[in-house]
Amino acid sequence: MQTKHDRAPAAPSANVSNNGTTGPGGTQILASGAKLNGSLRLRLRAKLFKGGFCRSHPCALLAKRDPIKGVMHTLGATASMDEQGYEAVADLKDDQDMFTFIVRVIEDYDCHVEDASGLMGIVPWFSGTTAVQSLAKLEESLLFAVLANGERWLSYKNSAGITGATAPLDLQGYMEIAIIRKRHEMETFARRLAHQMSIKVTDEGGFKGMLRYHTGAAAFQSFDKLQDEIRAAAKTPHAWARPNSH
Predict the structure, then answer these.
(1) What's residue 182's pLDDT?
(2) Which among 146, 196, 205, 211 would be 20 to 30 A from 112, CA to CA?
(3) Quick check: is 78 in a domain?
(4) CA–CA gap between residue 205 and residue 67 (Å, rounded)
(5) Predicted TM-score (pTM) above 0.85
(6) CA terminus-to-terminus distance, the chain
(7) Please, how many CA atoms are within 13 Å of residue 110, restricted to the half-sphere of its CB?
(8) What is the largest CA-CA distance in the chain?
């Protein structure tokens, strides 16, 4: 991986354009300017990060704590949760501080670390020991980790209990259901969306086949893409949907 002026993309990283965030193959994931809302708050357990890590290796990620109060004494624990705060922590070029900062970001997204080694793996790419990037890139990397197929080191907790029946029928709701990664929840969400668009599902096989690309089984798309596919099916003869007659 190339480094320029001490800056390099993390692995995996996201490409950002005016049309949104894209993953491998150009798959659109999140529209520009959109951000997971307050229902996505993370509750990491401190026990995930216990242990003694060597200071000379990128795995040296255990923040110093007050032996009595257990309070972190690092800039990573106090820096503002914005770009300026990220840059201040990155200037330290300290994996330990950046680890603490990233944990706070994760806590802001209601996610759960499934594999601490995955978290430790991205820290050097943001701490300055390997590369310096940005808070936006960090958030994108965490989002990719949640959306990844197969074994994931980061998962969404869904503390708010959002379901396909309750999620708002917009980009925000789509993203919340997508990261839950349950096909039946996306199916419920898509049926509600089709009903709102005055479109009726007439072929269950075709409808469920389309949804494979919105549930993590194949690839994540976008809310606009889901709307376009429902609308296109309703306009195509013998497709899986038709305009709902009143």
Answers:
(1) 86
(2) 211
(3) yes
(4) 59
(5) no
(6) 58
(7) 16
(8) 71
